[in-house]
């Protein structure tokens, strides 16, 4: 009986020792993503392979995505390597994401930046807000055809500029443009051009990105109801677009909610002016109201956008 008690004591001591050694080991590893700041998270992800490596979405193929996976009439087979549905696109991303998490113990999709804004980060972004350039082409700009318009979304494909979360950026573009249906009765459609745009050949600034999107991808805009929307990870601005023209870009590393930025920049394409930090009337063209998540336009912008979409000729 006595001997058994001593054995039990020793067993407890050994278990406690083992447990503490294991917990020391865990502490020493210290790469727990849960403790990372946003910057550390991004830095660490950049040391790992791209999560979509080994799939058709690794940036080496030109992949076009739409809701049903059927190419529209005006897109020829020479223009792409694969044409897939949104469902296939999401499945490919989710499978790769799960494998990546299993291998590296970290989600390849970083937490959304705007949910993790520190004062320093916000200050940098506020300093550099620049929202549109007047249309360089002097074109009449985009408008409806048969009651709809088409947003062609081009995430950058190069390792420096590509967004970390391609699924969410596509969804954000859709969520932002949805409000054109509600307010103007014009039906938005989408195509995702994955692996087309290489933005690594310009010095990062949203003006340069915008020009580069135009230079590299303008051949994919075939009708006057089509807008090309580029996504990059980071540059000095939240977004940029050419007013009353067909091109816009936005950044994933963003002070604002991405869907509001998409809505704001596409509104510039439809000729809406920029309101700066204007507080007077609720409008998505004012940074304050965008910051609050406001999704409507003021009366002045509504008239301008309506005319651009419906009374263009
Ligand atoms: Zn603006
Ligand atoms: Zn307005």
Topology diagram in text:
Elements: H1 2-29, H2 38-47, E1 63-66, E2 82-85, H3 86-104, H4 119-127, E3 132-134, E4 148-155, H5 166-184, E5 187-194, H6 206-217, E6 226-232, E7 239-243, E8 247-251, H7 258-269, H8 287-291, H9 299-310
Parallel strand pairs: 1-2, 3-7, 4-5, 4-6, 6-8
Antiparallel strand pairs: 1-5, 7-8
Helix pairs in contact: 5-7
The structure holds zinc ion (ZN) (2 copies).
Can you walk me through this structure?
The protein is α/β, with parallel strands linked by helices and 313 residues long. It has a domain at 113-310: Collagenase (Catalytic Domain), CATH 3.40.390. It has helices spanning 2-29, 38-47, 86-104, 119-127, 166-184, 206-217, 258-269, 287-291, 299-310; strands at residues 63-66, 82-85, 132-134, 148-155, 187-194, 226-232, 239-243, 247-251. The protein has an eight-stranded mixed beta sheet with strand order 2-1-5-4-6-8-7-3, sandwiched between helices. α5 (166-184) packs across α7. The longest helix has 28 residues, at 2-29. The termini are far apart. One zinc ion (ZN) is lined by residues 131-132, 264, 268, 274. The site of one zinc ion (ZN) has 5 residues, from α7.
Helix content: 40-55%
Radius of gyration: 24 Å
Strand content: 5-15%
What is the succession of H and E elements?
A: HHEEHHEEHEHEEEHHH
Describe the structure concisely:
The chain is of the alpha/beta class and 313 residues long.
